[in-house]
Write a structure and sequence with these properties.
It comes from Streptomyces canarius. This protein is of the alpha+beta class. Helix content is 22%, strand content 33%. The chain has helices at residues 8-17, 52-62, 66-90, 116-124, 136-147, 179-191, 380-387; strands spanning 94-100, 105-110, 128-131, 155-161, 166-172, 194-199, 204-205, 216-218, 221-223, 227-229, 232-235, 245-248, 253-261, 267-272, 281-282, 291-292, 304-309, 313-328, 331-339, 351-354, 357-368, 372-379. Strands 9-8-12-13-14-11-10 form a seven-stranded antiparallel β-sheet, covered by helices on one side. A six-stranded antiparallel β-barrel has the order 17-18-19-22-21-20. A hairpin with a 4-residue loop joins strand 1 and strand 2 (105-110).
Length: 396
């Protein structure tokens, strides 16, 4: 059904899986198997740090050589595996963590009262440490207070920035003097350590009207398939409501939205049938080779991340923030991950991946792939947990 041919590796994956199908021709991705509520146990194959498609896109979008891209993926994999361990070791002194691309290692912020033994354990494990004034729990509490405030359209979002030890509030430049914006900022500062940043544009979702391409459609809205799950695929919630029918790029019926949430969240899942099927692959759209997905280990802030969508195809960038509240015109959406990757209308719901690890589905952003911008995704593991789904993976 698909106009983009699958690679030999994907065909091998189909043989291994024995045709246990799901999301078909228009699919923008498929992912690694996890338990319904968690991350896969292994973050991937050490012998093969990423597929050719990821490496090519990272070289193009991040300005890396092939060796640098391979080294960064390996370092990010190590950081992702280390991150939950250092969180436990730091205990109440944990103040955040992120991947330092320049040093190729995880950095962990700790409050001054951290036990010396805990700091030694963290550093011996390979992480760098930094002293911070506020714990991650304190900063999360500040963000939670902001989540309860009504936000005007001139406030585009807010998130905890572990590198600065503060909650960052993004305000659209042209609206900074607006009375409602100034009132929100004033109340935000009263909640705790807050830094205000000026951004050039407000975020928007990336659904689109019916146009050509390689999408899926619900009504006159075009979006991109995210990751394959047993029985269907996951995608963005703003693309359709429960019960809405879905058709593919060729107009044939795919399936039905079984669950959807937007705003507050931006996730959904679609059951598929009628001959449509899924494979554990993210498609390269002819720009880069197709690639296999082996899991869904969460990449720390600072990690590289690439996106596949039906409009702008392959683009890469870095993870800028996690657990950000984004204030769309339709309402606030919580717990999104912010990236420097561009996207365009029709890319909504498409897949974000780091190395061979699924990260999430495209929610929205600002800008485009000609002039650049920022994009947010809904973490895939949250979707799995919410609907009790299991992702497909390639284990060969």
């Amino acid at each position: 059904m698909r106009r983009t041919r699958l690679t030999h590796a994907v065909l091998a994956a189909l043989l291994v899986l024995g045709g246990s199908g799901a999301a078909g021709a228009a699919s923008a991705a498929a992912t690694g198997a996890t338990t319904p509520a968690g991350v896969t146990a292994s973050p991937g194959s050490a012998a093969e740090p990423a597929s050719e498609g990821v490496l090519i896109a990272m070289q193009r979008d991040l300005g890396l050589t092939r060796k640098q891209a391979e080294a960064r993926i390996a370092a990010e994999r190590a950081a992702a595996a280390l991150d939950p361990k250092v969180r436990r070791a730091a205990g109440n002194a944990y103040a955040g963590s992120w991947f330092d691309a320049a040093k190729g290692r995880l950095t962990v912020a700790l409050t001054p009262d951290v036990p010396p033994g805990a700091r030694r354990v963290i550093e011996a494990a390979g992480a760098e440490t930094r002293t911070a004034a506020h714990t991650a729990r304190e900063l999360d509490a500040v963000k939670a207070r902001l989540d309860r405030l009504p936000a005007p359209s001139g406030v585009s979002g807010w998130h905890v920035d572990p590198t600065a030890g503060t909650v960052v509030v993004d305000v659209v430049g042209k609206d900074r003097s607006d009375n409602d914006v100034r009132r929100f900022v004033s109340r935000a500062r009263e909640a705790g350590p807050v830094t205000v940043r000026t951004v050039s544009a407000a975020p928007r979702t990336f659904a689109a009207g019916t146009v050509g391409g390689d999408p899926y459609y619900t009504g006159n809205v075009r979006c991109s398939i995210g990751f394959s799950v047993y029985g269907g695929f996951v995608t963005a919630g703003h693309c359709g409501s429960p019960g809405a029918g879905v058709s593919g790029w060729d107009g044939s019926y795919i399936g039905t939205f079984q669950g959807s949430s937007f705003p507050d969240n931006d996730y959904a899942w679609v059951s598929v049938g009628s001959g449509w099927w899924t494979v554990p692959v993210v498609l390269g759209w002819g720009t880069v080779p197709d690639q296999l997905v082996r899991g869904s280990a969460v990449a720390p802030v600072g990690s590289s991340v690439c996106r596949s969508g039906s409009t702008s195809h392959w683009h890469c960038g870095t993870v800028l923030a996690i657990n950000e509240t984004v204030n769309y015109s339709q309402g606030a959406v919580h717990q999104l991950t912010k990236t420097s990757v561009c996207a365009e209308p029709g890319d909504s719901g498409g897949s974000f991946i780091t190395g061979d690890q699924a990260q999430g589905v495209t929610s929205g952003g600002w800008g485009n792939c000609a002039g650049g911008g920022e994009t947010w995704f809904q973490p895939v593991n949250e979707i799995l947990s919410r609907y009790g789904l299991t992702l497909h993976t390639y284990t060969g």
